[in-house]
Amino acid sequence: MLTVMSDTSQWGGGEPPLPPELNPRNGTSGAKRPRRTSGTATGAPAGPTLGSRNGNGNGQRKWSRKRKIRLTATVLVVGLLAVGGGSYAWASSKLNKTNVLADYAGRPPVGKGTNWLILGSDSRQGLSTTDQQRLHTGYDTGARTDSMMVLHIGSNGDTLMSIPRDSYVTIPAWTDSKGVQHHESRHKINAAFAMGDGPLLVKTVEYNTGIHIDHYAEIGFSGFVNVVDDLGGVDMCLDHAIVDKDSGANLKAGCQTLNGTQALAFVRERHQEATQDIARMQHQQQFLNALAHKATSMGTILNPFTLYPTLDSGLSMLQVDNNTGLTDLASMFLAMKDLKSGNGKTMTVPIADANYQTPADGVALKWNMSEAQQVFDAFKNDTKVPSFSN
């Protein structure tokens, strides 16, 4: 479950208000801009490979230009937040930080580039019973991992690697909040989050991949829906229609703009697909890239009626590690935008057996370690990531 850990005492224990000088809803006319809300999950119609630093001159020029664009955009985002005095402090105060990246004996050393663990949890925090019914989320309490990705930002291009939640891995020995010690065990990777929350999940990912995680970001259902709606929807092009009663998805083939409810249904749908969890992760990658593209577009950044409500919804529902700041988040979203533009790679950790029968956890996914290790080594050493097909 998402836990708000930012200091709000200076606002009397409540949420910090949007600075008056930057609140687009406090215009001179007094008119309040209505918030777009999600309806049903029915789709509505809407209207080069990255050059290596060590490659030829043309590749070098492309990469240098790309880095300048990313740096400029990051500075622009932070600069816009700094306008008006209290804006940057307001945005920073919305970040919910947690000590999720604790050091421990045997932790993988810091590698080259930057590695993010991005987690989508099925936390129902903030959702009313009516919202849970409308969004087809179910009524479970607590939180589980609904999606898990490792994003590598480096000099040889950015790579987003999904880790199936049913991956059968080793959960390292750990000590819970009551001081009880737990021995190393073999389970599906989502069990790590259920047992020990973010810290144990990070430790489990690092233990099984050897990749040092530099930053952590987690968002739940309610924040996901609100961000999409505040952006005015996100454009997606689907190669086939999707109808799934469990997720509530009812989307037509072709290009369309998804609102928050439709987007949530799209990223949660899996029963229509032959490969289920792997197909769902591909949907999640596809949508996350499109979301980042919309959120970092000039049309969003330069429009206060879109930018500030989006920041208000997104930052308040995002949980990050203690060392993550606004510039780090800007860099992450710009890397995701690059992936949407075709600069980089999206993939799933190589799978050897999608129907692996475990001793006690039912059917799980077994990694192809000979291929997976090559991917993990590329992440650690910031080298070109090899391509494999599942």
From TrEMBL:
<feature type="region of interest" description="Disordered">
    <location>
        <begin position="1"/>
        <end position="66"/>
    </location>
</feature>
<keyword id="KW-0472">Membrane</keyword>
<feature type="transmembrane region" description="Helical">
    <location>
        <begin position="71"/>
        <end position="91"/>
    </location>
</feature>
<dbReference type="InterPro" id="IPR004474">
    <property type="entry name" value="LytR_CpsA_psr"/>
</dbReference>
<comment type="similarity">
    <text>Belongs to the LytR/CpsA/Psr (LCP) family.</text>
</comment>
<feature type="domain" description="Cell envelope-related transcriptional attenuator">
    <location>
        <begin position="144"/>
        <end position="296"/>
    </location>
</feature>
<feature type="compositionally biased region" description="Polar residues">
    <location>
        <begin position="1"/>
        <end position="10"/>
    </location>
</feature>
<protein>
    <submittedName>
        <fullName>Cell envelope-related function transcriptional attenuator common domain-containing protein</fullName>
    </submittedName>
</protein>
<dbReference type="InterPro" id="IPR050922">
    <property type="entry name" value="LytR/CpsA/Psr_CW_biosynth"/>
</dbReference>
<dbReference type="Pfam" id="PF03816">
    <property type="entry name" value="LytR_cpsA_psr"/>
</dbReference>
<keyword id="KW-0812">Transmembrane</keyword>
<keyword id="KW-1133">Transmembrane helix</keyword>
<feature type="compositionally biased region" description="Polar residues">
    <location>
        <begin position="51"/>
        <end position="61"/>
    </location>
</feature>
